[in-house]
Design a protein that fits this description.
2 copies of one chain form a homodimer.
Chain A: H1 7-30, H2 37-43, H3 48-51, H4 58-83, H5 89-106, H6 108-115, H7 127-132, H8 134-148, H9 166-175, H10 182-203, H11 214-229
The first copy, chain A, binds a DNA duplex through α1, α2 and α3.
Chain lengths: 233, 233
Amino acid sequence: MSAGGTARERVRAELIREITEIARRQLATAGATGLSLRAVAREMGMVSSAIYRYFPSRDDLLTALIIDGYNAVGEAVERADAQAAAGDFGGRWLAVCRAVREWALTHPHEYALLYGSPVPGYKAPEDTVSAAVRDTVVLTRIITEAHAAGALDPAGPCPPAPPSLAGDMARARTALSMDLPGDVITRAFTAWAGLYGTVSFELFGQFNNVIEERAAYFDHTMTLLGRLVGLEP
Amino acid sequence: MSAGGTARERVRAELIREITEIARRQLATAGATGLSLRAVAREMGMVSSAIYRYFPSRDDLLTALIIDGYNAVGEAVERADAQAAAGDFGGRWLAVCRAVREWALTHPHEYALLYGSPVPGYKAPEDTVSAAVRDTVVLTRIITEAHAAGALDPAGPCPPAPPSLAGDMARARTALSMDLPGDVITRAFTAWAGLYGTVSFELFGQFNNVIEERAAYFDHTMTLLGRLVGLEP
DNA sequence: GTGATGTCAAGAGCGGTGCTCTCGATTCAG
DNA sequence: CTGAATCGAGAGCACCGCTCTTGACATCAC
C-alpha cells in the first residue's frame, strides 16, 4: 500500500507515521502522561492545532500507540517462538518469556502504556483487543502443542480448578482455540500472569535493592513457572 | 501526639491531614495523573498558592500518599495474617493474598500508584522503602515459620537456583531476616511476583473478556502459587 | 480553463495545570 | 511589647488539551 491513492493521501499517511514516531519518542522521555500534542507539533515545525487534522484527540493518538505496541510485542514473541526448536517446548516457553522481557526493557514506556496503570480518562476502543492477544496466542499454542505431544508433565499433585471456573475455561478454549483440560489452562494463566508480573516488578522498580542479577533471576523464575505448567526446561 | 505543640502547630498538622485526605479522594476519581493541587485547594476553600506552605511540591504530596498507601496495604496484610490460625501456613498465605487483592480492589488508584507505572518525573525518596516492605515481611515470615515447622513440601523436583543468584539470596536473607535455603527464596519471590501480577492484571484490565469469576480464579491461582512454594492448601 | 470542493496551516482564545513571587495580616517567642 | 516567623491571598509565568475561525492552497469535475 506504499504508492496508493493520490499525492495528498500519501503525504497524509507519511505525516501520520511521522507523528506516531515522534510521539513514541516523547513517550520514552516523558511517559504516557507527558505525551503532549503541542510538543509533537513543535518538534515537527507545525502549529499545535494542525495536529488535530490527523488525530482528532490525544486519546486517538494514544490508541494508535497502544495498537502499535501490542503488535510490536506480539511480533517479537512470534519471532522468538519461530526461532526455537519446534519440539523443545520448554525452550520455546523460555524464549518467548525472554522476548517479552527484552522488548519491555528496550521499550519501558510503551510497556507501561500496555501493561501498567490505565491512563486516567482513557477508554480503550475495541480495536485494541485483536492486537492485544497476539502474545497469548503464541503462549497457548506452545502449551497446546506440548500437550498434544504428550510432553506436558505437571509437577506434583495440584488442586483441581473449582467448577465455577468452567465457564471461563470454556470461553478461553474457544477464543484461543486450544484443546486443553481446565487444570492446564488455569496453570497456563498463572504462568502468564507470573511472566508479566515479574517483568512489571523489574520495570516498575519493585526489584530495586532486592534483585540485582535480573536476567538470571528472570530465567530461573520463568523456568519455575514453566515447570508449574508442566514444561521441562 | 494529638495535643502537642502550639496552636499553630496543631492547626498545621490538621491541615496536612485534611490535604492528604482530599488528595486521596481525588486520586480515587481522577487517578495519580489527575491529582491537582489547585483542585485540592479549591475543595478546601483555599487559594492554590497556600497549599505550598504545607507541601513544597506536588511530588511531596505524592510521596505522602505513597507512604500512606504502603502502610495501609501492610496493615491489611498484617491483620489478615494475625486472624488466621498460626499453624495453618497455607491458610495464612491465602488470607494474605486475599487481603492484598481486597485492598487493591477497594483502593484501585492507590494500588496503581504503588504497583503500577511509575509516575513520570517522580523519584521515590528513601522514606518509602521502609513502608514498602511491610507486606513482604509478612509473606516471608509465613514461609519461614512453615519451613521451621517442617511443613514446607515443594511439589516435585524443580531446577535449583543458579549460583549467580547467591548474592541476591544472601542479601534478601539478611534484609528480611529469614532463614531459608536459596531454592525456597526464589520460589517465594516467584509466588510474590505472581500475586501482584495477578492483582495487577485484574485491576488493569487484562482479564477483561477473559476471566469473569475473578474471586474463584484468584483463590485457585494463589493456591497453585502456594503449592509452588510448598504450602499445603 | 475554471469554478466548486475539500484540505490545510495558522492564530486567537478558553479553562486548566504546577509553581514563584510579593504583600499584608496574624501569631509566636523572647 | 516587639521583632521574627508564619500564614493566606493574589498576580503572574509558562505550559497543557482543545475549539473555533480565517484565509491559502491543491484537487477534481465540468
